[in-house]
Specification:
Helix content is 49%, strand content 24%. 22% of the residues are buried. It is rod-shaped, with a radius of gyration of 30 Å. It folds into 2 domains: 71 residues, no CATH class; 58 residues, Beta Barrel (OB fold (Dihydrolipoamide Acetyltransferase, E2P)), CATH 2.40.50.140. The protein is an alpha+beta fold. The longest helix is centred in the middle third of the chain and has 28 residues. The N and C termini lie far apart (81 Å). It contains 4 helices and 5 strands.
Length: 142
């Protein structure tokens, strides 16, 4: 039995796809797309040299274009701050006098221990303050 070249390309693409799933290496997916492109060329009657050229060009083009885009997205900070980072910059209301040694504030509906960023300043009950940092379970306010 003689198997057409395009079938071998599809078998190769499937093998690369399985490798992608197992290893999570996106480059294997790009090579699989190149193999599918070569299978299309083979199915349309292209010779072996043309199939290999299409495989190489499509694979290299995808790796050259997609990898830098993926790296750029991976290095970006998330748009939505969560946890302690989300509390920085929020306003709070003083519940107990806050100075350089401590106090209490209401921040995001919760009671937090707090201390003034500038130890010479004090904030009185009812005053609004800005949270500039969180150190452990203590909000640093200004």
């Amino acid at each position: 039995m003689n198997i057409d070249a395009w079938v071998w390309w599809l078998i190769g693409a499937a093998g690369l796809g399985i490798g992608l799933v197992i290893t999570a290496m996106p480059e294997l997916g790009m090579l699989a797309v190149g193999a599918v492109a070569a299978a299309v060329v083979g199915g349309l009657g292209g010779d072996a040299v043309m199939q290999v050229v299409v495989f190489a060009v499509v694979s290299v083009a995808l790796i050259a274009v997609v990898r830098p885009i993926a790296a750029r997205h991976r290095s970006q900070r998330p748009q939505l701050a969560t946890g302690v980072e989300a509390l920085k910059g929020k306003q709070a209301v003083v519940l107990e006098r806050v100075d350089g040694s401590g106090g209490r504030i209401k921040l995001a509906g919760e009671v937090w221990s707090a201390r003034a960023l500038n130890s010479e300043l004090a904030y009185e009950v009812g005053q609004e303050v800005d949270v500039v940092d969180i150190e452990g379970a203590t909000a640093i306010v200004l």
